[in-house]
Amino acid sequence: MKDGLRRSFSRRSFLKGTVAGLASIAIPVGSSDASIWEAFFQKHFREMNDDEKKAVINRLEEEYARKFNIKFNIKTTRAIPGTLFGYGLDLSRCIGCRRCVYACMRENNQSRDPQVQWITVLRFKKGEKWVNDLEEAEKYYYPEKVPEDGYFYMPVQCQHCENPPCVRACPTQATWKEPDGIVVVDYNWCIGCRYCMAACPYGARRFNWGTPHIRKSEINPETHYLGNRPRYRGIVEKCTFCIQRTRENPGRYPACVEICPVGARKFGNLLDPDSEIRYIIENERVFRLKEDENTNPKFYYFFAT
Amino acid sequence: MLNEIRNFFIVLKEIMKGNKWYYGWLAFLSFFILLGLGAYFQQFNHGLIETAMRDQVSWGLYISNFTFLVGVAAAAVYLVVPAYVYNFKPIKEIVLFGELMAATAIIMCLMFIMVDLGRPERVWHILPIIGAMHFPASLLAWDVVVLNGYLAINVIITFYALYRKAHGKDYNMQIIKPLIIISIPWAISIHTVTAFLYNGLPSRPFWNAAVLAPRFIASALCSGPALMIIIFQIVRKVSRVDIENKAIFKIGELIAYAMGINLFLFIAEFFKEFYSGSIHLAPMEYLYFGLHGHNSMVPWMWTALFFNVTAFLLFLLPKTREHFFTLNLACVLVIIGVYIEKGMGLVVPGFVPGTLGEIYDYTPTMLEKTVTIGIWAAGAMIYTFFLKFAMPIHTGLLRFVSKENSQ
Question: Taking CB atoms and an 8 Å limit, are B58 and A207 in contact across chains?
C-alpha cells in the first residue's frame, strides 16, 4: 500500500511537473508549480478582497525576493481621501539635463536592458513651431553641456488626464484612474494589446518588448503594487506620479521632483487651496499639452520667469 | 448520436484522402505553417522585441493583416445579398463557398490578434464574466463581440446547410432565413467596428477622419470578392461544382462599383488634406511623398494606387471584365492594391509622425513576415479542408448516414 501510494504520488508529481513546465513557457516569474497557477488565475486587482490581495502580495514578494535576492515590500496603499494630485513644470527653468529621466528609472525599477524610460525630454529650437506641432521636436540630443544656446526643453510624461483616452481604450480594464487621479496599470491583468498606446496623445505609455532586466544591485525593493514593482515582458507601463511615495503619510515627492537641480518640477494636492500647485495655477500663466483633445490633464506647464 | 460520430468520420476520411496534387498542396502549406510556428515560438520566448514594432510604432504587420482580413470576411455579404435578397440563381449556387471563406478569414483574424498580444495566455481577461471585458467603452471589446458573432453566424449557416444537404435534404429556409438576414448588417458591422477602433482616437489624426469607415467598407468589397472570383475558378476546375460565368462576371461588376466609390473617397481625403495643408497633413505626406527624407512607404503607396486604378478600369469595361485573363489580372491587382492600402498603408501612418513628433521607420523583421506567412498558410489549409468536404456534399457525391438509410 505504501508502495502504491508512493507510485501514485510520484506519477502525480511527474504530471504536475509536466504541466508546470508547459505553463512556465508562458509565465516568467515564479518557479514553484503552485504559484504558476495562482498567477494564471489571479483576479483583477480591483475585484480582490483584502485577503486575496494579501495572498497575491505574499506570492509576489516571494517571487521577487527569489529573483533579486533582496527582501521586497509591496504596498497596496489606497488613495488618501481628499487628494487629487497635480503636477507643475516650469519651462522657463528646465535645462534639459535629463536627471529626472534617470532618477525615475532608478526609483521605479524600469528595465535597463532594453532601456525603458517614462519621461521624454523634447528639445526645441527657439522660434520654431512647438506647442501644437511637435514635428520639430528633437528627442535624441546629446550635447556636452546643457542648456544649449538657442534651444529650450520640454519634458513629457504621463499627464494623468482627468479624461484619459487610454483608460477608455483598454479592452480588459487593466488600466484605470484612481480616486486621487493617478492613472495606473495592473501589470498582472494587462494582455499587451497596446491599444492604450495608440490612444495616448502624449506618447506616455511604454511596452516591455523584451524581458525586463535590472541588475540586482540597482533594484528598489520599496514598491507599490500599482507602481514600481518589477514588471513582466509583454505588458504596458507608465508614470504613476511615484504612487509608492506620494500616497505615504507623510508623503514624499516623486523622484523626478526631488532630483530636479533647478526646481522646475512642482507637485501637490489640487484639492488643497494652500498647496504649491494651487498657487502656481492661480498665479502663473499655465497651459496643458494638446488642450484641443479635451483630455484635461493634471499636468500643468508654466513659465515662472 | 452513433450516426453523428460516423458522419464525423466520413468527413474526416474525405479530408484525409486525395490525389497527389492534394497531398502536394497540403505538404506545401504545412511547410510554411511549421516555419511560422517556429518563428512564433521564438517570439513567444523572447517577446515582441523580435519584431520591428516599438513604442513609436506599436502596431505593425500583424494588425495590418488583421485589418485586411476583416475586409475579406465582410465581403461575403456581396454574395449573400444577390443570393438571398434578390434570389439571383447563379450566385445562390455558390454563396456557401463565400460564407466558408468569411469564416476562414475571421479565424485568421483571431490568429493575427493572438500573435500580436504581449501576453496571449491572458486573453481570457477580455471575456465577459470570467474576465473584465470593458464593454461598451472600449472599441476593442466591441470588436471581440462582432467578430466572434460573425464567425458563429457563418459557421452555423454553412454547417447547417451542409448537414441538410449531406442527408439529401434541402435546407429549411424558415430556420436559416433569420440568420442570413442578420448576417448582412453584421458583415457591415464587423468592418465598421474595426474602422471605428482606429477612427475613435483623436490622438491619431490620420485615423480620426470620418471617411475611414465608409472607405473601409468600399475597399473590403473589392478585395474579398476578387479573392472569391479566383477561388471559384479553382473550385470549378477541381470539382463538379457548377459555377456559371454569369455569377463570376456579376461579382466583377460589383467590384467595379465598390472600387469606384473607394477611389472617390480617396480623392476626397487626398484633397482635404493637401488643399487645406494643416499640420494633420503629415501622415498623408509621409505615405505619398515622404517626410523629412523618410520615404520607405512611398513606392508601396503609389503602386497600390496604380494597381487600384488599373483594376477599376479592367472591372468597369465589360470587354475586359468578361475576358478571363484581364479579369484575373484585375483581381490580383485589386488584392495587392487593397492589401497595401488597407494594411500597412493604414496602420503605419497612424503612428508616423508619432504623438511627440518622432518619425520611426517601421520595416517588419523576417520573423514577423514568417509568422504572417504561416498564418496565411494555416488559413489556406483550413479553407482547403472546408472545400474538400463541402464540394462533394454540394454536388451530391458525399452523403451522411441517417436514421432512414442506416436501418
Answer: yes
**DSSP three-state, residue B300:** helix
Give the gap in angstroms from C-alpha A85 to the nearest C-alpha of chain B.
24
Tally of residues, chain B: 407
Mean pLDDT value across chain A: 91
For B279, half-sphere exposure in the C-beta direction (CA atoms, 13 angstrom radius) is 14
Question: DSSP readout, B127-168?
Answer: STTTS---TTT-HHHHHHHHHHHHHHHHHHHHHHHHHHHHTT
If contacts are CB pairs under 8 Å, which of residues 296-325 in chain B contact chain A?
A: none
C-alpha cell belonging to residue B350: 497612424
Q: How confident is the model at residue B214 (pLDDT cuts 50, 70, 90)?
A: very high
A249-283 pLDDT per residue, tens: 899 999 999 999 999 999 999 999 999 999 999 99
C-alpha gyration radius of chain B:
22
Segments forming the whole domain that contains residue B152? 2-406
CA distance B50 to B35: 15
Look at the block and give the residue holding cell 522657463.
Answer: A92
Nearest chain B residue to A157 by CA distance is: B356
- The ipTM assigned to this model is 0.94
Instruction: Name the domain count of chain B.
Output: 1
pLDDT in tens, B60-103: 999 999 999 999 999 888 888 888 888 888 888 889 999 999 99
Task: Answer for the pair B192, B58: CB distance below 8 angstroms, yes or no.
Answer: no
B46 Cβ under 8 Å from any chain A Cβ: yes
Instruction: Express each pLDDT in B109-159 by its tens digit.
Output: 999 999 999 999 999 999 999 999 999 999 999 999 999 999 999 999 999
Is omega for the bond preceding B353 within 30 degrees of 0, making it cis? yes
Interval A119-125 mean pLDDT? 97
Compute CA A36 distance to the chain's CA centroid, rounded to the nearest angstrom: 24
What element of type H or E holds A185? Answer: strand A183-185
B1 touches A at CB < 8 Å:
no
Output the DSSP codes for B45-91: HH-GGGSS--SSS---HHHHHHHHHHHHHHTTHHHHIIIIIS--HHH
Domains of chain A from N-terminus onward = 2-74 (no CATH), 75-305 (3.30.70.20)
Q: Any alpha helices (H) in A46-92, and if so which ranges?
A: 50-68
DSSP label at residue B112 = H
Q: What CATH number has the domain bearing residue B148?
A: 1.20.1630.10
Q: All 3 cell numbers of residue B230?
A: 479566383
Q: Which residue in B125, B148, B199 has the most chain A C-beta atoms within 10 A of its own C-beta, making it the best mutation to test that interface? A: B125
Q: Which residues of B touch A172 (CB under 8 A)?
A: 122, 125-126, 131-134
Min Cα separation B239/chain A (Å): 42
- Cβ-contact A201, A164 below 8 angstroms: no
Q: Give the tens place of pLDDT for each residue, B153-187.
A: 999 999 999 999 999 888 777 888 899 999 999 99
Q: Which residues of A touch B202 (CB under 8 A)?
A: 165, 201, 293
- Residue numbers in A near B112 (CB within 8 A): none
Chain B residue closest to A197 (CA)?
A: B58
Beta carbons of A236 and A249 less than 8 angstroms apart: no
